[in-house]
């Protein structure tokens, strides 16, 4: 089948909350470099094979900035979504500047620092689960645990009051908008978020704390090897969005996947040493990971034998790539012992997710605490009744009804 015979709508519609769309396997097999139409009506190129996605994510010619005049717009009235806004351009996209930014910010996300935070994360998880149990079954695991835990943790790291978390949630959603919000709503929310973070940074300058933003301020400006005021501000906004939205959704999806076939949950109860590999496997197996990563091509490049002209916008579907049989034996089966597991849930290359140690630690801690405190946990509705989050760049479930 030639690439041009069929143009799919993207994201590919899918009602099943935890299952992949049937098209993924067909695309990987027959049409690994596929033309798709985005919610904006613009055309892009979709990659679904493991090797291709990995290659593109590691290739500096594919930039994450979609603000070029010929880049595809993701949503119809987009003028400042997460990938194409002026804000996105403030954090350096490549080269030494990008590495410098990652070194400054990444010190806060090392595996060593994450292990030091484990006891505090476990305590937060215990308290949230106790509150959910007090309110009685059925409960919504996403609202009770999945959402608040990563928010408390990232707020603490940024020195931001967790009491403002409902506002962050709305601002995050508008920044991750594909089709849910109007341009006026997105613009207003971004302006509020920007002002909030400006005020927060001003307060940190007056009264520094033991947090990431205070440390970035203390490092001085670019002339001292630090970041500019606007870079610190945008870094704070980006970390707040990235630090809670994806993990909040992943906690709900992880628990749903493990309870969808309860023998998986029973296996972890019998052998909690599998928690680490189980978390990695749920990350690989997640069929509802969201939009994928868009990349803009600054020069002509070949992928999978297809020449992509300069100006092409490519969508990398890590979730489809994670189901590629050529990279994973029995890719369509969930194997809680799978190791090694080189999945692409956190991307690959120099732009791989900065917070992956944080996300992994949160997911492992949540699973440890849930298995210990609520061994009888189960879904309170059939899997077929779980509903996807729609209209945003991140994938998730609207609610995760559970009983115990």
Automatic annotation (TrEMBL):
GO terms for molecular function: heme binding; iron ion binding; monooxygenase activity; oxidoreductase activity, acting on paired donors, with incorporation or reduction of molecular oxygen. Keywords: Heme, Iron, Metal-binding, Monooxygenase, Oxidoreductase. Belongs to the cytochrome P450 family. CDD domains: Cyp158A-like. PANTHER family: P450, PUTATIVE (EUROFUNG)-RELATED. This is Cytochrome P450. SUPFAM superfamilies: Cytochrome P450 (SSF48264). The lineage of its organism: Bacteria, Bacillati, Actinomycetota, Actinomycetes, Streptosporangiales. The keyword Protein biosynthesis does not apply. Gene3D superfamilies: Cytochrome P450. The keyword Metal-binding applies. Pfam families: p450. It comes from Thermocatellispora tengchongensis.
């Amino acid at each position: 089948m030639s690439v041009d015979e069929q143009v799919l709508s993207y994201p590919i519609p899918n009602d099943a909350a935890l299952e992949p769309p049937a098209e993924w396997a067909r695309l990987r097999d027959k049409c690994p470099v596929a033309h798709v139409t985005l919610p904006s009506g613009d055309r892009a190129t979709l990659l679904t094979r493991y090797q291709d996605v990995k290659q593109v994510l590691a290739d500096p010619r594919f930039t994450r900035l979609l603000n070029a005049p010929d880049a595809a717009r993701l949503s119809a009235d987009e003028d400042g979504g997460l990938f194409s806004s002026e804000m996105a351009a403030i954090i350096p996209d490549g080269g030494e500047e990008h590495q410098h930014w990652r070194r400054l910010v990444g010190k806060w996300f090392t595996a060593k620092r994450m292990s030091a935070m484990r006891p505090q994360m476990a305590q937060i998880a215990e308290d949230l689960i106790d509150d959910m149990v007090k309110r009685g079954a059925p409960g919504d695991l996403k609202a009770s645990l999945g959402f608040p835990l990563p928010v408390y943790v990232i707020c603490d790291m940024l020195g931001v009051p967790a009491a403002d978390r409902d506002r962050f949630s709305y601002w995050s959603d508008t920044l991750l908008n594909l089709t849910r919000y109007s341009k006026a709503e997105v613009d207003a929310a971004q302006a509020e978020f920007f002002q909030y973070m400006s005020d927060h940074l001003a307060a940190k300058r007056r009264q520094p704390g033991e947090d990431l933003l205070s440390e970035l301020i203390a490092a001085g400006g670019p002339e001292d090897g630090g970041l500019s005021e606007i870079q610190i501000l945008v870094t704070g906004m980006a970390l707040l969005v990235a630090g809670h939205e994806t993990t909040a959704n992943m906690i709900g999806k992880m628990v749903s996947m493990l309870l969808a076939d309860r023998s998986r949950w029973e296996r972890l109860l019998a052998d909690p040493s599998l928690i680490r590999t189980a978390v990695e496997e749920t990350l690989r197996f997640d069929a509802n990971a969201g939009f994928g990563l868009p990349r803009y091509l600054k020069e002509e490049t070949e992928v999978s034998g297809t020449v992509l002209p300069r100006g092409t916008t490519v969508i990398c579907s890590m979730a489809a790539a994670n189901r590629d049989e050529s990279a994973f034996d029995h890719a369509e089966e969930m194997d809680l012992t799978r190791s090694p597991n080189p999945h692409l849930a956190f991307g690959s290359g120099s732009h791989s997710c900065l917070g992956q140690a944080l996300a992994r630690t949160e997911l492992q801690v949540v699973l440890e605490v849930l298995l210990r405190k609520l061994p009888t946990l189960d879904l309170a509705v059939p899997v077929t009744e779980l509903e996807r989050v729609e209209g945003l760049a991140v994938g998730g479930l609207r609610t995760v009804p559970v009983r115990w």
